[in-house]
Amino acid sequence: MDNIWDGIKAAVYLLVTFDRDLMEITLRSLQVTLSAVAISSFVALPFGAWLAIRRFRLRRAAIAVLNALMGLPPVVVGLVVYLLLSRSGPFGVLDLLFTPAAMIIAQVIIITPLIASIAHQAIRELWAEYHDLLISMNTTSGQRIRTLIWDGRRALITAALAGFGRAIGEVGAIMIVGGNIDHATRVLTTAIALETGKGDFALALGLGFVLIFLSLLVNFATHALGRTERGKFW
After folding, report:
1. Distance separating alpha carbons of residues 81 and 133, to the nearest angstrom
2. From CA 23, how far away is CA 3, in angstroms rounded?
3. Residue boundaries of the structural domains of the chain
4. Residues 111, 36 contacting (CB under 8 angstroms)
5. Alpha-carbon distance 49 to 156, whole Å?
6. Residue 53's closest CA among 124, 139, 135?
7. Do 51 and 120 form a contact (C-beta atoms < 8 A)?
8. Residues 198, 204, 207, CA angle at the centre, nearest 5°?
9. Who contacts 122 (Cβ-Cβ below 8 Å, separation ≥6)?
10. What is the pLDDT of residue 234?
11. What values do phi and psi take at 57, rounded to 5?
12. CA torsion 129→39→103→168, rounded to 10°?
């Protein structure tokens, strides 16, 4: 018990003094995750909106596949990205393996289906309200998608936050493609696993506190946006 308490006190000291290693790992985690969320949102939000307003033969199958991809095992994603980026893989010439770029690619693959699925559900409800108006105005598909994304932006921000929450806590895929290299690809989750194994509970707990804070911040933001969205419609 004394060792745990000493570890907690040491972790708080690292946080209060802005320990260099802790700050470096935290900033790298934010850099990788925010980049992945931005890229995923750029792809997933328009795709989710398009899927909500378009009618085609395999639409139900496409939605089912999208929902299934939300549960894609991260370690499988990491393995696939590793094989693609390895020297013997088709993209090995880019020399991206064990770099933050490889970690971003893995996170993009993991969270894009999640953001697209949430966006599709949100836009589908909004499309039911806007359908007659946008059809009567003879708008193009692009105009409809832009309008729905803009008017549903609060719900879509929630989708992006959900993607952020999923990505910031990911360890399996980014451990495989990033390699957990000190001062290069070490992020919060991989550093916690490493420092725990080494017995450095102070740094591990400090990183854990940061990760918990970020998770709580995302949850509070999602809850606040949800209440704002309900107030808008009710």
Report:
1. 44
2. 24
3. 2-228
4. yes
5. 10
6. 124
7. yes
8. 150
9. 48, 152, 155, 156, 158, 159
10. 38
11. -60, -45
12. -50
Q: Give the side-chain half-sphere CA count within 13 A for 207.
A: 28
The residue with tokens 């808008």 is 232
Separation of alpha carbons 67 and 96, rounded Å: 29
Residues 35 and 47: their CA atoms lie apart, in Å, by 19
Helix or strand run (H / E) with residue 31: helix 20-53
Fold of 2-228: MetI-like fold (1.10.3720)
What pLDDT, on the 0 to 100 scale, is given for residue 154?
85
Please count the other Cβ atoms lying within 10 Å of the Cβ belonging to residue 155: 21
How many CA atoms lie less than 13 Å away from 46 in the CB half-sphere? Answer: 9
Query: Helix 100-136 and helix 74-85: axis angle, to 10°?
Result: 110
The rounded distance, in Å, linking the Cα atoms of 212 and 216 is 6
First-to-final CA distance of the chain = 51
Q: Rounded to whole angstroms, how far apart are CA atoms 170 and 60?
A: 29
Cα–Cα distance measured from residue 4 to residue 49, given in angstroms and rounded to the nearest whole number? 49
- Tokens found for residue 230: 């309900």
pTM assigned to the model: 0.87
| Average pLDDT per block of 10 residues along the chain, 234 residues long | 66 80 90 95 93 87 90 92 93 92 95 94 89 86 89 88 90 92 90 85 84 85 67 44
Of 143, 152, 147, the closest CA to residue 120 belongs to 152
Residue 85 near residue 100, CB atoms below 8 Å: no
Phi, psi of 86 (to 5 degrees): -65, 165
Task: Of 148, 144, 186, give the one whose Cα is nearest residue 28.
Answer: 186
